[in-house]
Amino acid sequence: MVVRELSDADADRIFHALADATRRDIFARVAREGLSVSALAQHYPMSFAAVQKHVAVLHRAGLVHKERRGREQVVHAEPATLRRAIDLLEAYERIWRQRVEGIDRLLDED
């Protein structure tokens, strides 16, 4: 499997999008099944336009894509983008695990 690295701008857009609880909830809902923005708007105490803005942020981050079905736009999750963010976090985790192992080795030497 080839994993494309994230640019700093891509990582910023993804983590900015996921920093908001409403956007994380929208992502979770559309990861289970594609939903129209109208259907999504029924789950939140905010205007349709506000939900559209949240979906737009997720779309700019590459976390969702929209499919036109008649008069509606159905929102679908893009799990590959989330996977790339997870890969980045796992790379940071490996760095910290190596540091902890280095500290453990130093402590064992004493």
Would you give an account of this structure?
InterPro entries: ArsR-like_HTH (IPR011991), HTH_ArsR_DNA-bd_dom (IPR001845), WH-like_DNA-bd_sf (IPR036388), WH_DNA-bd_sf (IPR036390). This is ArsR family transcriptional regulator. The protein has a single domain, classed as Winged helix-like DNA-binding domain superfamily/Winged helix DNA-binding domain (Arc Repressor Mutant, subunit A, Orthogonal Bundle), CATH 1.10.10.10. The chain has 5 helices and 3 strands. α1 runs antiparallel to α4 and α2 packs across α4. The model has no long low-confidence stretch (mean pLDDT 93). With 110 residues, the protein is α+β, with helices and mostly antiparallel strands.
Keywords:
single chain, 110 residues, alpha+beta, Arc Repressor Mutant, subunit A
Give the helix/strand layout.
Blueprint: H1 8-18, H2 21-32, E1 35-36, H3 37-41, H4 48-60, E2 64-69, E3 72-77, H5 79-109
Antiparallel strand pairs: 1-3, 2-3
Helix pairs in contact: 1-4, 2-4
Question: What does the average pLDDT come to?
Answer: 93
**Shape descriptor:** elongated
- Helix percent band: 55-70%
What do we call the CATH topology?
Answer: Arc Repressor Mutant, subunit A
H and E order? HHEHHEEH
Protein name: ArsR family transcriptional regulator
Organism: Thermopolyspora flexuosa
GO molecular function, one term: DNA-binding transcription factor activity
Domain HTH arsR-type: 3-97
Task: Give me a quick take on this structure.
The protein is 65% helix and 13% strand.
